[in-house]
Structures are given as C-alpha cells and as structure tokens.
C-alpha cells in the first residue's frame, strides 16, 4: 500500500452534485430520483474538473510488484479459539475485556464512507451497515445491550496505529487479513469473504485487467487494492483517493475509466449509480477480519465467540440478507480456522 498519513475527518466534504447517496433499486434507500445516464468514458480523454481532496495521480509503474504471500501460507487466517464463558469481574486484573466492561462501552474504529458496510443514514445521520451491525453484536455479548458502542472514524492509514495505541478496542472496517498486517495486529476469524474486481461504466468495453493498460483506475490509498491493480496491470495509471465514495465521484466526473477494490465495496458504489457495473474475474481474495491489539488475547477470543454465535444462531445470515443480497446468494458465513 502507499502510505498516506491524513488526520481523521469528523465531517464530510462539501456537497458533491454527482455523488448519489441513495439508490432506488436497493433495500437501503427508497424514494430517490433515478440519476441521469452517464455517457461512456472515452479512454485517455478525462475531465478537467478538480479531483477530490487528497487524491493523487500515480503514473504507470511499468513493472509488476511482487505478489505478497497468501495469508493462509503464513497462518494469518488462523485465530484464537473462543474461551469458556467467564463471569464479569472474574477475569484476571488488567484484561482487555474487564477494562471494556468497567468503561461501560465498546470503542470501535470504522469509517462512514463505505456504503452497505459503514455509512451515514442520510435522514438520521446515524451510522449503519453490515460492519456496524457486527460491532453491535460484540457489544450485545459484552453488555447485553447492542447500543453500548462508541464509534471512532478512522482513515485507512490510521486504523492499525489506533489499535496499537489502544485508542480503539476493535477495528471493524472491511479489513483484509494479510501476512504483513498480522505482524502488527491480531485478527479474529474471517467474518466475510470478498474478492477484488472492477467497477466500470456500462458499455465501457473493459472486461478484465488486460483492458486496463493505458487506462486510469481509481482505488484507495493504504489498501491492498492499490498494489493489486499495479500487479495485475502495471501499465495502468492509478487515481489514488482517500475514501471509497471518492471513487464514485472520480468515475462520474470522468477522471478514470474504472475503479477496483473488493466486490463488497464496489457493490455499494454500484447501488448508488445504475450506470455502473462490476466486471471481470476475481483479482485477489479478500478475507475480512476484525482487528484487535496484539496483546489483548482475551478480547480476540471473546470476539471469536461472538462470531461463532452469529454463525450458529443465524445472525450472520440475517445481516447478510439485510445488507448484502446485491452480491448474490451465499451458502453461509465463512468457516472459522483456529490455531489452538
């Protein structure tokens, strides 16, 4: 990933006329006007409108970077097995779970710019989405009350620092488990399996990575998606942006020919503009894990207990059906892998 250190934003940027916050075709929003069709983006002919704040143009690398090791080869996908239920106050002094219980709320890092996973309801301003509801389930098991969550808005670049500095208890931010990241923080078992693909305007003629040579591709900084695009097509120019909703604006304002990241995130962008479609084969496997400070093993085990309960009692499928049916049917949640 390309390191970018930006302060966490606590408010959205100025209104963008091309960014549609809702879509008539999804269960998330209703009563929105259908956007006007966009004309196809001609390759190499880009708008002169200013880019979003913090966006960068990265020229073609010309050489594909080395493929990183798959997380299953280094054991990163294997987490700690849930421990036996322990009554509050019976845990060892200084345990992370006891500290959270004493505080009276769970502090969770996420963002507000990922439609379907964590975004602001345009009417109420409350955070909602699949990741938000997963965090609430952990709070439910901790306190018997899913509302006892304090959300901290994090950038891609600050999420691991926030865990290491104990600024948040968990990061539930569509975070792919990688070998490199597992050196810094602990991860839960995989709670969602995504795959990196391409989002393009309908009729663009782009069908896979071979068609990206000489084209512009939008992706986010501090994510595995950027390096994957450079690897699968080193002749592509990268439009690197701070947040995923910026890629929607970049496509609509004709600054890029395609966007690339996890299909789960692309589905959230496509739901806001029916002129866009997801195409091409999977470029990379993206197993999501909940991030935890590496020294808080008791919290890792507790979170894995919640995920096990969600798999068993149907909660995971209920959340999938609420938020993610646009991705198509799934047989069920990812099976856990434990190392102990």
UniProtKB/TrEMBL annotation:
Any one GO cellular component localisation term in the record: extracellular region
GO biological process, one term: amino acid transport
Entries under Pfam families matching the protein: SBP_bac_3
Keywords: Signal, Transport
PROSITE patterns associated with the record: PROKAR_LIPOPROTEIN
Keyword Transport: yes
Cited SMART domains: PBPb
All residue ranges annotated as the Solute-binding protein family 3/N-terminal domain in the record: 105-327
InterPro entries: Bact_solute-bind_prot3, Solute-binding_3/MltF_N
Signal peptide range: 1-30
Family: Belongs to the bacterial solute-binding protein 3 family.
Protein name (record): ABC transporter substrate-binding protein
